[in-house]
Amino acid sequence: MSPFFSPTRKKFIFFDMNNTILDRRQCFDSAFLDVMNDYTARWEPDESQFSAQDALQSYKMEWSRHRKAPIRSPISPDELRHICLRKALQTLPVNVNPMFTRAFFEQVEEQEDNFVALFPGVEDTLEALSQNYQLAIISNGNRRRLQNNLEKMKLTPWIDHNRLFSSEKDGPRKPHPAIFESALRSMSAVPSQCVMVGNSWRNDVVGAASSGMDAIWIHPGNIKKISERRIGKQKVIIIRSFKQLVYTF
Q1: DSSP annotation of 190
Q2: Max Cα separation, the chain?
Q3: Residue 142: is its pLDDT beyond 80?
């Protein structure tokens, strides 16, 4: 299979971080269970037969139900988290008010970094790509956490802090073109030289295309191993996993 991109035309590869390089879904699940177990350990054994795993599954089902609704309610992510947590813990001896929800998820966020993990093949893929391209991050995540994750997962040989662009530091969030344009200026790059890699069609693919960049969408549910689409003039390659990137460059 011939590559879709080559070093003669592309010089920079930008990556999303969470759920592209880092398996944040698994981090969240493990952290949620850890915090939930800490809460339930304070109760008497006969107060509830509801396990932390039950609470997690109930929370995720409620979240999925709201996110997949034909017409989404105009509520914020924080409000949605509260609704889903209240539903998940409705049989437990706890008052799930907004203050409780905020404290609960602050603890979850603190614990997530203890469970942070890379998707399979990330290190070998970054090493291979770094031979011909400059690698960088464009993320909506918290900059401090992103820096800590880069160091903890030993990714700095390929992506240093100067090539980490976050919405917190660099203004609007993806898919707004401004965050992509800020990264391009900092890297002294033009859109035609760049490819954006991410797991979100809206944030990563559409956002990058609106800035004139080609993109790669990591979509595990894609029917074909590798396929190609277009958004206007921009090329979009769809793959199933991070390690398939070596076949696109």
Answers
A1: -
A2: 67
A3: yes
